[in-house]
Design brief:
By secondary structure, this protein is mainly alpha-helical. 62% of the residues lie in helices and 0% in strands. Keywords: Heme, Iron, Membrane, Metal-binding, Transmembrane, Transmembrane helix. InterPro entries: SQR/QFR_C/D, SuccDH_FuR_B_TM-su.
Amino acid sequence: MAATTEFVPPRSGRIDAKYTRVPGAKGNFEMIAWLFMRISGVFLVVLIFGHLITNLLVGDGINGLDFGFVAGKWADPFWQFWDLAMLWLAMLHGTNGVRTIINDYADKDRTRFWLKGILYFATIVIITLGTLVIFTFDPCIPGSPLEICN
């Protein structure tokens, strides 16, 4: 028994002009975005595995993860920038992927505009808050009984 499949054309049956490359056009944004996804993906693998190894395998493992562990880790600028790079690359990588999905599946220009607007707003908020947390983290809460704060 041989199974046959029938060719199903794309939804619209045509290629939208906004997605075709015009000879001589100067816009390379999609190619740069595609390249960014590949390069950031490689860096993210290194950053994430370094993060997991440092937090889960070195020292006391998962039992050693607590407020003091994070405070000690973020006291070193190396780990602040490591976590910052991981945050920024992960957010930008994910945002670029979701932007591509929105471009592929949102049919109306207005829908695409609002979805991408919400996406970009959420990305900016999360990157800003995450960066502030990393660089303004202070383990010494006023009135805290911790010995390192006295």
